[in-house]
UniProtKB/TrEMBL annotation:
Keywords: Membrane, Transmembrane, Transmembrane helix. It comes from the Bacteria. The chain crosses the membrane at residues 17-32, 84-103, 115-136, 167-190, 197-214. This is DoxX-like protein. The keyword Membrane applies.
Length: 430
C-alpha cells in the first residue's frame, strides 16, 4: 500500500510564524497589485489604492526623512520609487502583524486550513497573471515586430529593454513558445492535481521573466520576483517529495491534495461552478481582448499608407536646393513612418525629431507636428510617383518646402531577409 503524506496535526513554531508572515505579505501584495482581469476590479482597486498615493509619500517624507518627494506612482513601470516604498510598507506591516498574531494565537496547533486557502489564492493569482502574460505573446501583442525606426537604430543606441523587445519581437515562433509555456502554467495552477507541475513550470517561466527583467533593465522586476517567490511557496509543501525525486533517487509518495470542503453541499457546488465560470471568462476575455488589441496596434493592425522608410533626395527651401551636408542640422535625411500615427525625421547630422503623422489619402495631404508645439505644423500636399517615390510640398512659416523622397525596401535589412535555414554550412553571424 502506498503511503500518502498527510497534513501535520502539529506545526512547529517557526513554521507557524512563517505562515502568518507570508499570508499577510502575499495578501497585502495582491491588494496593491490586483490582476485587473475580472470586471470592474481595476475600478474598485483604484478607489482603494488612491488614499495610499497620499499615505506613502507622507511616510516617506516624515518617517524615512527622504528629501525627494514621491510624485510618480505605478504606471508602465512597476519599479517606481513608490512601488519600492509600498514593498517596504507591506513588509513592515507583515512583520508587525506577525508579531501581534503570534502573541494572540500562540496556542494554535496548526494552520492547515489557512495554508490550504492561501495556496488556493496564490494558485489563482499566479495562474491569472500567467494567462495574461501568455496570451499577449501567443497573439503577439506584447513584443511587436521591429518597426522601421527600430531597424534604422544602431545596437549601441538601443536601451537594454529596447534590445530585449526587438529580440523577442523579431520571432513569432519564439513568442508562441514562451506564450504557450505561460498559458500552460496558468491552466495547470487552476487544478489541485496539477498544482505541483504548474508551480514547477511557474518557477521556470517566472524565473525566465525575472532574469530578463533584471538583466535587460525591464521595470517589472518587483512583480516577476514576487511571482517566483509565490511559485516557491506553492512548492514548499512538496519540497521533501521533490528533493527525493529529483536529487536523491528515492520514492516520492503521493501528497495529500484533498480539498477542504464546507459542511453544506451547495457551498461546494457553488465554488466549483464559480471556478469554471471564471476560468472560461478568463480564457475568452484574454483571447478576445488581445485579438482586438492586436488588430488596433499590434502586428495585425492596418499599416498607414506611407508606412516605411524614405530617403530624402532633393530638399528645396524657397527654391534653393539644400546640399546634403552632414553638418546641416535642419535638412532632412530620412523620413520614417510607423504605426499609430507617428513618424520620425532623421536629419543630416543624425539627430532625430518625432512627429505626429496624419495622412488623408482622399485629399492627398499629410500633416506633421510635434506635441511640444502643435501650432507649428507641416501641412504637406503630396504627389506619388510610381510605387516608391513621393513629392511633398508645403508652406512652413515664411518658407516654402519641396521635398523628394524615395522609399527604401525594408527587405534589404538582413534581419528581415535572412529567414530560417535548416542547413547552415557555416554560421551566419553578422
Amino acid at each position: 500500500m502506498t503511503e500518502t503524506i498527510t497534513a501535520p496535526l502539529h506545526w512547529s513554531g517557526p513554521k507557524k510564524i512563517a505562515l502568518r508572515f507570508f499570508l499577510l505579505l502575499f495578501t497585502l501584495h495582491i491588494f496593491f497589485n490586483p490582476n485587473g482581469v475580472l470586471p470592474y476590479t481595476d475600478v474598485i482597486a483604484g478607489y482603494l489604492i488612491e488614499p495610499f498615493h497620499t499615505i506613502i509619500p507622507w511616510l516617506s517624507k516624515h518617517l524615512l526623512n527622504r528629501a525627494e518627494p514621491v510624485t510618480t506612482f505605478t504606471n508602465g513601470s512597476g519599479d517606481t520609487t513608490y512601488d519600492y516604498l509600498v514593498i517596504l510598507f507591506i513588509t513592515t506591516l507583515s512583520v508587525i502583524g506577525t508579531l501581534i498574531w503570534s502573541v494572540l494565537d500562540r496556542k494554535a496547533r496548526d494552520y492547515n486550513k489557512l495554508f490550504y486557502w492561501l495556496c488556493v489564492i496564490l494558485r489563482y493569482y499566479v495562474g491569472i497573471t500567467m494567462l495574461s502574460y501568455g496570451f499577449v505573446k501567443v497573439i503577439k501583442l506584447q513584443f511587436p515586430s521591429p518597426s522601421p525606426g527600430r531597424l534604422l537604430q544602431s545596437f549601441g543606441d538601443a536601451s537594454p529593454m529596447g534590445l530585449a523587445w526587438t529580440y523577442m519581437g523579431y520571432s513569432t515562433g519564439f513568442n508562441y513558445f514562451t506564450g504557450i509555456a505561460e498559458v500552460s502554467c496558468g491552466l495547470l495552477l487552476f487544478f489541485r492535481k496539477t498544482t505541483t507541475l504548474g508551480a514547477v513550470l511557474g518557477l521556470v517561466v517566472a524565473g525566465n521573466i525575472m532574469a530578463i527583467n533584471y538583466c535587460f533593465d525591464v521595470p517589472v522586476k518587483l512583480l516577476s520576483t514576487t511571482l517566483v517567490i509565490m511559485s516557491l511557496f506553492l512548492l514548499a509543501k512538496d519540497a521533501h517529495r521533490l528533493i527525493n525525486f529529483f536529487f536523491l533517487n528515492k520514492t516520492a509518495p503521493p501528497s495529500e491534495i484533498e480539498p477542504h470542503r464546507f459542511g453544506r453541499k451547495w457551498k461546494n457546488i457553488t465554488l466549483c461552478v464559480l471556478k469554471y465560470v471564471m476560468l472560461v471568462y478568463l480564457l475568452i476575455s484574454n483571447i478576445y481582448g488581445d485579438i482586438q488589441a492586436a488588430a488596433q496596434y499590434g502586428d495585425a493592425a492596418k499599416k498607414p499608407h506611407f508606412y516605411g522608410i524614405y530617403d530624402i533626395g532633393n530638399y528645396v527651401v524657397n527654391k534653393d536646393t539644400i546640399a546634403p551636408l552632414t553638418t546641416n542640422t535642419v535638412r532632412w535625411r530620412k523620413l520614417i513612418v510607423s504605426n499609430s500615427g507617428y513618424a520620425m525625421v532623421k536629419k543630416m547630422n543624425d539627430s532625430t525629431q518625432n512627429y505626429a503623422f496624419r495622412e488623408n489619402i482622399k485629399a492627398h495631404t499629410i500633416v506633421m507636428f510635434t506635441y511640444a508645439d502643435t501650432s507649428a505644423k507641416y501641412n504637406f500636399t503630396y504627389t506619388e510617383i510610381g510605387k516608391d517615390s513621393l513629392v511633398l510640398k508645403c508652406k512652413f512659416g515664411l518658407d516654402s518646402l519641396h521635398i523628394n523622397l524615395k522609399k527604401f525596401d525594408m527587405k534589404n535589412f538582413k534581419l528581415i531577409n535572412r529567414g530560417f535555414h535548416w542547413v547552415n554550412e557555416f554560421p551566419y553571424n553578422r
